[in-house]
Design a protein that fits this description.
Blueprint (H helix, E strand, L loop, with lengths): L2 H24 L4 H23 L9 H25 L4 H8 L2 H11 L7 H23 L5 H27 L2 H23 L8 H25 L5 H7 L3 H13 L5 H29 L1
Helix pairs in contact: 1-9, 1-11, 2-3, 2-8, 2-9, 3-7, 3-8, 4-7, 4-11, 4-12, 5-7, 6-12
Length: 295
């Protein structure tokens, strides 16, 4: 397979991931139910593949690795539930832009928890991206039907994603991607299923349309999308994948415009461009820091 085909597959992964917000927007179920179904179906698929290729999962991880997987799975559950809550209260454009500010919180968490000092470039990028966040959210203070709560939930989703990334750094270095995602997704699925049962949300009893959408959100953005991006790490750097994912808000916004008829406001465009530019600078700073640490 030549390089051009790898690039095509990479962009297929980006489009698949971008459908996550669209599915979550149209599914008639609570955010906890959507998240539970998404992770349960995805983890079942990954577990089946892993059993065929690698054997039992329980004995593949040490006790300390399972503890980290529990922490990572908890943050992933927070990420999905708060993000899906966000999508019930604000537009796809605002929600995806804000939830994709996770690299900012990864950098902040790395500094506060892991004592990883950010570079000047990363600080500048975070400042630009946060200005874009303020610009988007400022619309909601003045609107009659405020979507500020949705925006705040999207930011909580970004914090959850950052916690998932930070907690899983060591695990990803110690085991294969298949073992890692199977363990963390399974832990997350169990947590979400228990939550749904405790709070009494209806896990079953949906119509055929809803079940098709629930299967779709597990298959397209989670299994196909994330698997494709993880597979692409064999042929592209992590930085390249991270920069490509800056296109997710653009693709998701266009899909929402085409499929859901959501309007794209000028302030959203301006704030979105600032967020994407800021995140690109943060990633550039992270790449430079990584090179300096290798010397």
């Amino acid at each position: 397979m030549n390089r051009s085909r790898y690039i095509v597959i990479l962009f297929i992964g980006l489009i698949a991931v971008s459908f996550g917000a669209i599915f979550a927007k149209v599914i008639d179920a609570t955010p906890f139910v959507i998240a539970a179904w998404r992770l349960t179906i995805a983890s079942a698929i990954y577990y089946g593949v892993m059993r065929v290729r690698s054997g039992a999962l329980r004995t593949a991880l040490t006790r300390s690795q399972w503890i980290i997987a529990l922490i990572s799975g908890l943050f992933l559950a927070i990420h999905f539930t708060t993000w899906f809550i966000s999508l019930k209260h604000t537009t796809v454009a605002s929600s995806v832009l804000l939830v994709d500010t996770a690299p900012i919180f990864v950098a902040l968490g790395g500094y506060l928890i892991l004592k990883e000092k950010p570079t000047l470039l990363m600080i500048v990028g975070m400042g630009i991206a946060l200005t874009g966040v303020v610009l988007i959210s400022s619309l909601d203070f003045a609107s009659e039907q405020s979507t500020l709560f949705g925006n705040l939930m999207a930011i909580c989703g970004a914090i959850g994603a950052a916690g998932y990334i930070l907690a899983g750094r060591r695990l990803r270095a110690e085991m294969s991607t298949l073992h890692y995602v199977t363990a963390v997704y399974s832990v997350c699925a169990v947590m979400l299923l228990v939550t749904v049962i405790v709070i009494g949300d209806p896990l079953f009893g949906h119509d055929v349309r809803n079940y098709l959408y629930l299967f779709g959100i597990a298959l397209i953005p989670q299994t196909i999308g994330h698997t494709t991006l993880n597979w692409s790490l064999k042929y592209f750097s992590a930085t390249t994948i991270s920069v490509l994912l800056l296109g997710e808000p653009i693709v998701a916004t266009l899909l929402a415009w085409i499929l859901l008829g959501e309007r794209i406001g000028g302030m959203n465009v301006a704030g979105g461009l600032m967020i994407i530019a800021g995140l690109a600078i943060v990633l550039r700073g992270e790449m430079k820091r990584g090179k300096s640490e290798q010397k």
